[in-house]
Amino acid sequence: MINDMIADSITRIRNASIRGQEVTQLLYSKIVESIVKILQDKGYIESYKVVEEGNKKYINVVLKYEDAGKKKKPVINEIKRISKPGRRVYKGKDEIKRFKNGYGTIIVSTSKGVLPNDEAYAKGVGGEVLCSVW
């Protein structure tokens, strides 16, 4: 049994990206799907698709790579879980304004849904900081 679906999904994406795999499979939950949608919108992954196998749902994520000569370099340099079940981290709208000088993204769970940091700042809401990507 998995206690933290978000951390499990982030770890699966990180490991697949380091190994150079094209596709990875995540366990389905609504919050994981919204995080993956933000990753796609921001250009960190190619695409994702929700797949049903019997009574279980999965999310197949197609990872994105840059060409760097012979080797393919992952677009995701670092993806990290910030708020954990044992220690929740909350930030106000002014504290999530920018991350990595605009090159990174913080994914925040707000009262308006799961949003990237720039949208949360524009809407004037803060919330629980789920993860950071750059």
Keywords:
25% helix, alpha+beta, Dna Ligase, domain 1, 3 helices, 134 residues
Count of helix runs: 3
Structural class: alpha+beta
Order of helices and strands: HEHEEEEEEEEHE
The number of E-state strands comes to 10
CATH fold-type name: Dna Ligase, domain 1
Output the CATH class name: Alpha Beta
Radius of gyration: 15 Å
Indicate how many domains the architecture comprises.
1
Helical percentage: 25-40%
What's the main sheet like?
5 strands, antiparallel
From the spread of the alpha carbons, the general shape counts as: globular
Determine the mean pLDDT. Answer: 93
**Between the first and last Cα atoms, what is the distance in angstroms?**
29 Å
Give start-end ranges of low-pLDDT stretches: none
Task: Estimate the strand proportion.
Answer: 35-45%
**Do you know the CATH architecture?**
2-Layer Sandwich
